[in-house]
Write a structure and sequence with these properties.
With 116 residues, the chain is of the alpha+beta class. The protein has three helices and four strands.
Length: 116
């Protein structure tokens, strides 16, 4: 009888520990995922879009890449512990295109302060 109760308690303890570890892993993974917008140049057709998309997705740590011809832009989700925007830009430039981190757009509805 005691053996069964002990086994059950050990099992429940291990289950709780596993669930805690899984929750921590998900939280950690979520905080490592980032998104960056890249301004591209030199793209002229759908083939260029496919080439840049393929190049970005080949980088270890890139989770998703969406490249558009108009506007010439790439939005990339990536694991910040495995890669960074600088690596993405270098890979795009090696493919024969231009790239730089896009400037964040102004928040709609907010007026810019003018210097007087």
């Amino acid at each position: 009888m005691y053996r069964k109760v002990f086994s059950l308690l050990v099992f429940v303890g291990c289950l709780n520990l596993s669930l805690l570890t899984l929750a921590e892993a998900k939280k950690s993974k979520a905080t490592q995922t980032k998104t960056v917008a890249l301004k591209l140049s030199g793209l002229t057709c759908g083939g260029c879009v496919r080439n840049v998309t393929k190049k970005l997705k080949s980088i270890q740590g890139v989770l998703a890449a969406k490249v558009t011809l108009k506007p010439m832009r790439a939005v990339v989700s990536y694991n910040a512990k495995k890669c960074n925007p600088k690596q993405m830009i270098q890979a795009i430039k090696k493919s024969g295109y231009g790239a730089k981190v896009a400037e964040p757009k102004a928040v709609p509805g907010k007026k810019k302060k003018s210097k007087k």
